[in-house]
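for the writeup, i need someone to sanity check this before i put it in the appendix. the sequnce is what the collaborator sent (i think, or maybe the updated version? ugh). structure was predicted straight from it, no edits. if anything looks off just tell me and ill rerun, i have time this weekend
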Amino acid sequence: MRTVLAIILGGGRGSRLYPLTKLRAKPAVPIAGKYRLIDIPVSNCINSGIQKIYVLTQFNSASLNRHISLTYNFGPFSEGFVEVLAAQQTPDSEAWFQGTADAVRRVLNYVQNYNVTEYLVLSGDHLYRMNYRSFIDSHRAEDADLTIPVIAVDEEHASSFGLIKIDEKNNVVEFREKPTGAGLKEMAVDTTNLGLDEKEAERRPYIASMGIYAFKRHVMPELLDRDHKQSDFGREVIPAALNDLKVKTYLFNDYWEDIGTIDAFYDANMALVKFPKPLFSFYHPEAPIYTRQRFLPPCKFVNSDIVESMIAEGCIINKAKIQKSILGVRTYIEEGCEIQESLIMGRDFFQSLKERENDVDEGKIPTGIGKNTIIKKAIIDKNARIGRNVKIINKNGEYDDASHEKEGWYIRDGIVVVLKNAIIPDGTEI
């Protein structure tokens, strides 16, 4: 795997994840209380023996740069690195990245400096654990120019993906981006050819691209150089490659979730607290997910009731009820609070008891969750200050409401999102 270079696509504005992407790049969005989305593909690379990793991004990249620089350091005796390549003006182009393919095309001068045999192109907003070594071995064994990992999906979800048709020898013969109607029906295949049993093949007759690609070294730049108007891998580059290249698939038959929207992000986090077998587990003994070392103290619980939840380090919970929720690092919860089916992202800093008391004396809201506050089915972004006797319960059952953004909160996909650094006054009802 020393001859494989990974390129992680950090995405554009991340508009589907707004307001979590208001102040950060999409790969920098926190997940599971202590990680960032970027930690998933980077950890998969490291666990697979791939240590040459570039992350491409262009929006709100400051926190992503900081996280990567503080987290991933392979030391002076390794060739490994994890580096951000942000969009920049060059003599050849003054524009932003125009799509996934355009982003990779614009950084070819950097990635071609390394003596590698394959380029591995990954996405920065998926939750899954994958051994890329097995994938690359399959790519090499097939002597493929391009290999695309795929999942088998049912008809209900198929139109959300780029769909693939293969022949009896696993050659990709057609690729359609998010087809619907009759076009969707035409993409159904016999997925027993991928190794599924008859029952599963009947239930999942569509082959969906995971948005991951392995290219032979010479193939990727040649493809990208054919037509500079082709800006996206799924819509343009991959369909064009089918005309004269050997394109194969690799079945990934495990948990994989695209968490590019607020509801998908929320559901993926809530699925983590299921016990004893969550769909995705951060407790894997052989393939851990890495993140920044913070050297925080243990959590402190004072007469609290905690059910089916994940609590990151450095938290203080005082006489509160926590149910099916995730509490991020340094979360402070006052007595009488009830937190249900919510993601509390925590804080970037501690606030001492004296500082908290001074805030109260001065009529300010201290960090954390104030006394007797109730939070249900919500996402509380980092460093938010929630006052006392607050109710965050989406009392009117709104599905989307952006009218209160200046007040520090937003409703999207039926989920209340309290913005990063927001201040919610005492007695507020949302």
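The chain has a mean pLDDT of 92. The chain is about 20% helix and 25% strand.
thx in advance!!
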